[in-house]
Every structure is written in structure tokens, then in C-alpha cells.
Amino acid sequence: MSIWWSLHLRREAASVPLARRLLIGTMESAGVDPDISYDISVALSEACANAVEHGGDSVQHGDDPARGEPTEAYRVTAYLDGEKCRIEVTDSGPGFPSGRSRAPLRPSHSDAEHGRGLCLIQELADHVHIGNSSVRGGAVVSFDKMLKWREGTPLMAF
Length: 158
Fold this sequence. Notes:
Radius of gyration: 16 Å
Strand content: 25-35%
Shape: globular
Structural class: alpha+beta
Strand order of the largest sheet: 1-2-3-5-4
Number of helices: 3
Order of helices and strands: EHHEEHEE
């Protein structure tokens, strides 16, 4: 079984639960184990929240992505393919500082309100890539998670 979808979302807080509900609904319909669905949906929420908060700090309304300027939107793409789920969240903001994709992430203090999202994604996913888009600019956070299926699921991977 293979399922793929992509969303182009406005950089607004309301877009985060929308993406999360769509992912949970897709995985529930496909028969993914609820614990795995929960982990992936939390990681997705963190990646989307980062895109909303940091994905266009220099954005102006009316910018044109065709001219290489940032927009007020970000993209979420999800692939459920066989026994793996891959999520990619791409924004068109300034991206991560140079070398960020190679630097180890350090968790913030446990009582901090910000700065834990990328570390949480790394804890919840099996493989994580954090970097900048070479094509459009902006940040790219992608992660994979091996899927487990509910017993007797009709769409279970072969």
C-alpha cells in the first residue's frame, strides 16, 4: 500500500492542527498502530509549528515565489509507503544557520517554552534530516518512522 499527499498551508497557527488531523485520519484509515500514529503526529506538529514561527521572518505580503522571494506559506508532504512513513515540512524563510544540519541538537531546559521541537522530532522519529532547501531556500525538516499495523488491517503493508 502506498499513500501520498501534499498540503500548501498558510503560516498561521490554525494550520498546525489541520495538518495533524489529516495525518492522523490517513493513518487511522490505513490501519497504522495508534501509538505510532501519535508519535508521527506529534513530530509533524513540532515541524509545522517551527515553519509557522520561523519560516518567513522576513516575509512581506504579496511576495512572489516565482521570483525566488519567500511566501506566507509552507508545505507538508506525507508518504506512507509499505512499512515506512516519511514526512517533509518545507518553508521558504531564511532557513537554518549555515552548518545546522550537521551540528548536534541540544535540548533546551525542561522548563523552556521554546527550543525543544527539533529534539523532540529526533526522539520520536527513526531517521531525521534537518537542513536547507537547495532549490527554493528555506528550511526542510524531514523524518521517517517505521510503521506498525493494527491486527487485521485490510490495507496492511505486504
